[in-house]
Every structure is written in C-alpha cells, then in structure tokens.
Amino acid sequence: MTYCVGLLLNEGVVMLSDTRTNAGLDNISIFSKMFTVENPDERALVLMTAGNLAITQTVWNLLQAGVWLNGVSQKLTDVPDMFAAAQLVGAAVRQVASMDSAALASQGLGFDCSLLLGGQIAGGAPRLFLVYSAGNFIEATDDTPFLQIGEHKYGKPILDRVLTPRTTLVEGVALTLISMDSTIRSNLSVALPLDLAVIRLDQMRICTRRRITADDPYYRTIHDGWSNALRDAYLALPRPDFVLG
Q1: Contacting residues for 64 by C-beta, under 8 A, at least 6 apart
Q2: Which of 23, 108, 131, 213 could be disulfide-bonded to 27 (CB atoms 3.0-4.6 Å)?
Q3: Is 85 buried (19+), middle (13-18) or exposed (0-12) by CB count in 10 A?
Q4: d(CA 67, CA 17)
Q5: What's the pTM?
C-alpha cells in the first residue's frame, strides 16, 4: 500500500508521495512512486502511482516509449494539454490491462492501480487528475481541490477542514505533510522517505523537488508540532457535563 496526495491551488500544484512497497509483512522495500516530465518554459508534469508496482512501472515505461491515442503514438512530452495528458495515462493503463489482466486473474490477482497526474502545459491552467484502473479519470475542482490515492482515509480530515484553492503553496506543503504524517502514524503500510514536488503557476518547471527523510528538520517540526497541537486542543475542550460520576 502507499499514500499519495495532490493539491490544486491558485498558486500551483503540490504533490507528495510515500515510498513504501510491501509484498507481505517481511518483504518491505523502498520504491519512488513519483515520476516527472519537465521541459522548462513549456511543461511540468508529475505522475504518482499506487497499487501493483509491476503494473504502475509498466504504465510509466509505456508512457516513455509512446502510447497510441487518437491514432497517433504520443508521450507526455508532446501531448498538447493536460486533458490529453490524462487521456494518454488512461490509454497506457488500458494497454497494460489488455496485456496483463488475464495472467493476473489466473493467479487470483486483480488489476490494481491508480495514478495522480498534476501539472501545467503552456497555454493552459494547472490541472490535477486521478486516473483509475479502468483508464477513466476525474479532475480536481474548486469544490474539491485535492485528490488522493492509496491509503487515503487517515490523511483526508485535515484537508477537508482546512484546504481551499486560496491556500498558498507554502501552506499546501505543510498540509500535505500533516496529512502524510497522520497516515504514517495510523498505518504501517505507509512510511518515509517521502517525495515532494511543487509546480508554481505559469513557471512551467518543478520549482521544488525534495526527498524527505525521518531526520528532515522541517518534517520533524511538523511531526512533533502537530501531535502537540492536537493534544493541546483536546485538553482545551470543555468536558461533558452530562456524564454522571
């Protein structure tokens, strides 16, 4: 299992993923779930993956080699806009499904993958998509300016309560780290190190790319500060006066 979260903000896009992959309690590995496509001044895209690692790595390799879409072999480096980029990722997922689904089913396995695609291509606005195992997708909106894949339930409450499109990129990075830290705290299948990418509006480049480890000073501030803040908030709440002693 893994956890990835993407934010679509007025100032740009924030993407954060963990790196844990496990095939059982005693077979745990570290693999980056984040892939980037960058052509300065023209496009900056980030793809994050969850699910069967063999499937998602094959999808990424197909996207690099070229995927047939609308009768033409295309890559993320040459699609004309973000919607076409999401269509291309979906087409790659369907191609892998057509190759591997029967073999997986014969071993009692399902076709399990999901992907987050965020970024900006010149001439268009930043956009954020969630691509499902069937190759179809949804898009983040002003009403729901974040998308998640993997083990998402523990990191969702803080985003529901605080996040808006007006949240700054700096605030967004802090929120994604709180969301991730909450997930790591409650689920052993999600773990450090983390991969962070930030794309600022109209810069067409990844302005921040960072590998965050357990000894990262800012992450430690988030980890300790959030725990203390929650404890203090709980202690400050009034106690129920209807409980009889």
Answers
A1: 75
A2: 23
A3: buried
A4: 25
A5: 0.97
